[in-house]
């Protein structure tokens, strides 16, 4: 039994703490003793987020993890492996009766992760709008490619969030509400001309980018190379650039060399039991 869970990119510019999408980059979680450990898998220790989630969801025993998602880079590693651990516990308990529609992964994952947008795309796939109790899939009338610039340094989510004040100006709130609505409309209609403006933000991104000039430079370079739009993935430091598939390599080639790129697609399945 293997639970395959996609990486995520959260916030998506103006959708702070409410929007996210799933990417074609995966972590796998299974239960030790069910099958032989796959190549490159390791048994999780007691503090590993997958094991903590497995126990929290009622699992018995220990899980293994095989991971391709960079850690501490804003690509949803902790959320993905937590989802894997929760679903492993549910499948252990329910067997063939397990269903994604009755999963506790959203509630337990949100409890452990702190934000629903960090776990919901990993569970359901696609582009989602998430609260602590409900997830809405956004129809996407595009076939985008995502060029992810992953720098050589990491960031702390808690430290990054600490730079954001406890309140925001009304004008900034209105600005973000408008751009979030515009972004959803652009995805639903396939209007790529809206995307550059629709991913502007006044709540968190400028603060985080000001603290990381390499990320700001990568975002500017990707947009100049022809990406439709871009944003700081999660709390960073990865920068996500959304573009036409034919432009992906040109965008990747334009990005700074003090990091590496991943050219990915939108994962539409979410977590699956293989």
Overview of the molecule:
- The chain has 274 residues and is an alpha+beta fold.
- It has 2 domains: 3-138 and 268-273, Ribosomal Protein S5, domain 2 (2-Layer Sandwich), CATH 3.30.230; 145-265, GHMP kinase, C-terminal domain (Alpha-Beta Plaits), CATH 3.30.70.
- It has 10 helices and 11 strands.
- α2 (77-94) packs antiparallel against α3.
- The protein is globular, with a radius of gyration of 18 Å.
- It starts with a strand and ends with a strand.
- The relative contact order is 0.20.
- The mean pLDDT is 93.
Jot down its keywords.
single chain, 274 residues, alpha+beta, Ribosomal Protein S5, domain 2, Alpha-Beta Plaits, 2 domains, 34% helix, globular
Give the helix level as a range of percent: 25-40%
Shape: globular
Give helix and strand order, one letter per element, not per position: EEEHEHHHEEEHHHHHEEHEE
Strand content: 15-25%
Structurally, how many domains make up the residues? 2
* Through-space gap between termini: 6 Å
Give a quick precis of the structure.
This protein is of the alpha+beta class. 34% of the residues lie in helices and 22% in strands. Strands 1, 2, 3, 4, 5, 6 and 11 form a 7-stranded antiparallel β-sheet that branches.
Q: How are the secondary structure elements laid out?
A:
Layout: E1 3-10, E2 19-31, E3 42-43, H1 49-56, E4 63-67, H2 77-94, H3 105-113, H4 120-124, E5 127-130, E6 135-138, E7 145-151, H5 157-162, H6 170-189, H7 195-198, H8 205-210, H9 213-224, E8 229-232, E9 239-243, H10 248-253, E10 259-265, E11 272-273
Antiparallel strand pairs: 1-2, 1-11, 2-4, 2-5, 3-4, 5-6, 7-9, 7-10, 8-9
Helix pairs in contact: 1-2, 2-3
